[in-house]
Amino acid sequence: AGPCDIYNAGGYPCVAAHSTTRSLLNSYNGPLYQVTRGSDGKSTNIYPLSTGGVANAATQDSFCKLTTCLITVIYDQSGKGNDLSAAPSGGAASGPVSGGYDFVASAIGARVKVGGHEAYGVFTTLATGYRRDNTNGIATGNQPEGIYAVVDGTHYNGNCCWDYGNAETNNRDNGATHMEALYFGSARGTAAGTGNGPWIQADLENGLFAGNQSGSVNPNSPSINYRFTTGIVKGAQSNLWSIRGGNAQSGSLSTFFRGPRPAGYYPMNKEGAIILGIGGDNSDGAQGTFYEGVMTTGFPSDEVENQVQANIVAAGYATTNEYSGPALTVGSAVSLQASGLSGQQYIGHNGSSVSIMPVSSSSSETQKQDVTFTVRSGNNGHCFSFEAVNSPGSFIRHYAYQLYVDNSDNQQRSPSTFADDSTFCPEPGFTGSGSAFRSWSYPTRFFRRVSDGDVYIGTQGGPFAWDSATNFVQQATFTARNGLA
Ligand code: AHR
User: Fold this and answer.
1) Does the model's pTM come out above 0.95?
2) Probe ligand 1: pick from 174, 179, 190, 204, max atoms within 8 Å of CB?
3) Ligand 1 neighbour 173 (Cβ under 6 A)
4) ipTM, interface predicted TM-score of the complex
């Protein structure tokens, strides 16, 4: 059985069921998600390996070979047709994509194993989100609903708002009671939990709540950051709602809050749109990773949710290799040679500026050092980072999509942002040889030189000058050579 079989049997039918990793119903054999590739703009659907099974990631791998892929649709498995796609512009923010749409997620940003099979989650970064305003069967007004999601408890931030759940149908902040979504992250809400977060909170609009006492901490809502975290938010027809959570890899759920709604939040005025990765008004500064989640009608019993948690644990989420390109040796010195340029040209730096530099065996030692980097384990614990040999402690990092060599004291943003933005994952080179260096924190984007020799993180088709589809294949492919210095 899947989570929706359990909810359905319990009398709380799933009205939305989203997952890129597995079927959430025993009988589901439709598409899980759609990917769209950069090379020719074509799309394909990714199905389960078998009815009720795990995603067939190999079909994505072959469709997306030597190009980029985005998750453009996350299909609703409940039968209600509540598919998610790029979120439109909202009251708080307009997305960067043409028409004001938000970015959508990379298809390879969240590699994972489920039941021993490779699969992909939905890694959303800033200005990235999914939405459906015109829904079918989702709770409105004061109707009861249940929500659960499995997230990466280590990928979050303190910005508004990484949500999954019920929001406004006009993409605007329509005031308290107009939302009921699961929030995950370290934004200190109107009623936060203990410690520094992240917390599972309810986004009820104009407020994130880990409890019902505005301005206070709910002592029963802990910071929770299991690599795979289950979060639950549910609201009854009566003035009752609840927040629960646990480790999606083992054990049971704990109840972090159960009681009346915060003052001013009853009765509810839910509108029934569905959001993922953004706030109700398209506030788009948050980041997070989604593996699966559902919305039900009715107020699911704790007992039924406990069975869903057991089902999630049994599904067997586990980590896997985060990259698929040529491995790098930590501690070795490398020079990253650009493809498609005459002579030998490498990614180099002059102080904090990064550009493509011609360097050969007859160049000076200083020039050779400028293009030589020591491979380090990724600064945020994932993949790799590149430390300048002539500037220990300084690493290649992106800032406003451009590459710089910078250190965490001299950085332009917060420490965790430095660690994330100086971490890169090698993928196979787009030309068919060498490597492409994917930004860990913006996984749709790869090291890319542009015509003036500057280096950005770019995509194969996108809104910025460094996202042109033309010449992407050569410009985003590099070969890691032994360090010249
Ligand atoms: O409630 C928190 C956020 O406030 C909502 O997600 C958003 O719509 C508003 O900005």
Assistant:
1) yes
2) 179
3) yes
4) 0.89
